[in-house]
Amino acid sequence: MPRVRQILFVAPAPIVWARHLQSFERHGLEVETTPTTSSDQIGQGLAAGTWDVGIGVVDNVLAWNTEFNAGLRIAAQLERTQPMAFCGVPGVASLGEAARGTIGVDSISNGFVLVLYRALARAGIERAACDFRAVGGVRQRFEALCAGTIGATLLVPPFIEMALARGCTLLFDGREHAPAYPGVVAAAPAAWMDRHPEAATAYRLALVEANRWARDPAQAEAAAAALTAAGYSPAAARRLVTTAVDDLAVSREGWNESVALRREAGLLAGEPRFEDVVDLAAVRDK
Predict the structure, then answer these.
(1) What percent of the chain has pLDDT over 90?
(2) Torsion region of 85: left, alpha or beta (phi above 0 gives left; psi -120 to 50 gives alpha)
(3) pTM of the model
(4) Nearest-5° angle of CA 170, CA 176, CA 180?
(5) Residues 122-139: pLDDT tens digits?
(6) Can you list the domains of the chain with their CATH numbers?
(7) 99 by DSSP, 3-state: which?
(8) Could you say which of 1, 163, 217, 238 is the most buried, measured as most Cβ atoms within 10 Å of its Cβ?
(9) Are 267 and 63 in contact (CB under 8 A)?
C-alpha cells in the first residue's frame, strides 16, 4: 500500500472527515501524519523530501518555494477562508499599544504575520520598530499569550474564543484587513507528484470524496460530530460544515490576496504565476 507522509499543525476538516470515513484506506493509501510546531519545519521538510504533503496557507507555499527552493504545487484548498484575530493580553487595548510590547509569531517572513504587517502599515506603525518573537504554531502562541511571555499574537479558532474567555482582548479581526485571505491548502513537491501520480491523485480524491460526504445536508450532523470528536468547538464545526469548499478547488481570489500581501510587505520574489503553482485540476474560477 503506497504511503503518503503528511505534516500539519491541526488536521483541517476534510482530513478529519477522510479519517472518519477511512477514505484514504479505501483509495489504497497509508497516510502517516506528523504534527509540527513551525511552518519552516514544514517547508524545509517538504524541500528535503522528508514529507510528501504539507498543510499550510498559500503564502507559506510562496515563501517555501522561494526560501527553500521547494518546488511545491498546491493540490487542494481545504478551507474556504482562514478566520484569524490579533489578540492581546488583558489590559492591552489597541494595536498601537500591542506594537510597543512583544508580539508572538510563527515566522516573520510568511504566513499570518503578513496580515499583521498590513494592519500595522495602515495604522502608520513601522514594523521594523516592533519586537517580534518566534514562538511557534498557534497552540504555542496561545499558551505564550496566556502565560504573559508575549503581549499579543494572531490566533485562529478555537484559540481566539479560548483567549477571550481568559480575559484577553480582541484588537482586530483578520477580515478587516484581508477579507479574501484563503483557508489552508495541501501542497506537495511537484517532483513527488510527478514521480507518484497515482498516490497524489488518490490522496486528493480521498479528500474530495470525504468533503462531498460532509457537504451532503443529510450528513451535516455526522460531519459536525466528527469534527467535535477531533477537538473542534461545536461552533467551529458547524461553520466548517456550512462553508466546505466545492471539490476543494483553489480560489484565484485567495491567491491574489496572498500575493498582494507579500508584495506590500516587500517579500515577493518575482511574480509567481497561479498556473505554475496550482494544480489546475483544482481551480475555482473566482
Answers:
(1) 91
(2) beta
(3) 0.91
(4) 125
(5) 999 999 999 999 999 999
(6) 3-81+181-274 (3.40.190.10), 85-176 (3.40.190.10)
(7) helix
(8) 163
(9) yes
